[in-house]
Design brief:
Elements: E1 6-11, E2 14-19, E3 28-30, H1 33-51
Antiparallel strand pairs: 1-2, 2-3
């Protein structure tokens, strides 16, 4: 599997994470940094399972 750099940003109501260099829209969110990171990793996996490796 390819590695992606993931950006996690803090907002007043939680955290949002997204990968750089992945085709399509993939985001994750959470109340903590760790939750947002885990959510975006799950979203990346779902994206690949749904659209296939050509989506990379």
């Amino acid at each position: 599997m390819r590695n992606f750099r993931i950006i996690v940003e803090r907002y007043s109501d939680g955290y949002v994470g997204y990968p750089l260099g992945l085709k399509g829209i993939v985001v994750g969110q959470g109340d903590t940094y760790e939750e947002a990171l885990a959510d975006v990793k799950s979203a990346i996996q779902f994206h690949i399972e749904t659209f296939g490796r050509e989506a990379l």
